[in-house]
Amino acid sequence: MTFADEGTKNQLSMSNKVTNKKNIEILKKNINKLSYEESISELEIILKNVQDENISLNKIQINYIKGHLLLKHCEELLQIVEQEINEINPEFLELD
After folding, report:
1. Domain coordinates of the chain in residue numbers?
2. CA angle, corner 54, sides to 26 and 42, nearest 5?
3. What confidence tens digit (pLDDT) does each residue in 48-91 have?
4. 0.85 cut: is pTM over it?
5. Residue that wins the pLDDT comparison between 47 and 88
6. Which residues contact 7 (CB under 8 A, 6 or more apart)?
7. CA–CA distances in Å: residue 54 to residues 36, 48, 50, 57, 60
8. Which residues contact 14 (CB under 8 A, 6 or more apart)?
9. Contacts of the segment 75-79: beta carbons below 8 A, 24+ positions apart
10. How far apart are alpha carbons 44 and 67 in whole angstroms?
11. 49 contacts: CB under 8 Å, gap ≥ 6
């Protein structure tokens, strides 16, 4: 297989697309729309994909970037909930 092979071109172009800052920003926007549960589900899918021994380097790169963004999103959602819990006034929780 030569470097000019069409399959190689497609893989290189996909790799460039994933690392393209503009595409990462689009991916971030899409991930930010997900709930915590949806994000965890996506992370589980990525974990299954990465465990595949026949995974291409391109897919490893895509999964790494997406997984990193999903994990960061989950952490941010957890911080928001933690902050909201800390702001709850214990007096509101008292039963009469």
Report:
1. 28-84
2. 35
3. 988 888 888 888 888 999 999 999 999 999 999 999 988 887 77
4. no
5. 47
6. 1
7. 29, 12, 9, 9, 10
8. 58, 62
9. 77/35, 77/36, 77/39, 78/36
10. 9
11. 55, 59, 63
DSSP 24-88: HHHHHHHHHTS-HHHHHHHHHHHHHHHT-TT--HHHHHHHHHHHHHHHHHHHHHHHHHHHHHHTS
Identity (one letter) of the amino acid at 38?
Answer: E
Q: What does the pLDDT read at residue 10?
A: 52
d(CA 27, CA 59): 15
Q: What is the Cα–Cα distance from 42 to 44, expressed in whole angstroms?
A: 5
Give the length of the chain: 96
Amino acid at position 43, single letter: L
2 contacts: CB under 8 Å, gap ≥ 6: 8
The yes-or-no verdict on residue 3 having pLDDT over 60 is no
Tokens 């909201």 map to which residue? Answer: 84
